[in-house]
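Shipment paperwork, digital attachment
Item: protein structure file
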Amino acid sequence: MEIGDKIPEILGTDQDGRQIKSSDYRGRKIVLYSYPKANTSGCTAEACSLQAHKAELAAAGYEIIGVSKDKPASQKKMADANGLEFPLIADVDTTLLQQLGCWGEKVACGHRTIGTLRTTYLVNEEGVIEKIFTPKEIKTKIHAEQILDYINK
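Attachment content:
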């Protein structure tokens, strides 16, 4: 997906078994972020950064939604262990990740693999992508600050 594209209607099922749809968020903005693997250091740091700044993001009109290939139980473990108060979509079959364009080839430890490309989409009130943070731009420990800097510029 690119800037100007509308995100899919069906986003998936979260850690609590709730189906999440983009229409559930109509009239609100979304920080939709993909991460490679729940309960790993970088992905946990990114989620905790977003949780720590959840009130500031909400004040700017944004809701947070995370998505990874992990099973619901892994997503729930990460949410519970870190006090995450936002949906973590368990996209086990990678449908949403592929639709978003953040599932593909990457190099990890010198090996080429297929997996989730850490990406963040800022979505407007109509479900249209307005900004994309690419994997090379994202600094997991301060990602919420990166988003807020962009929003507030």
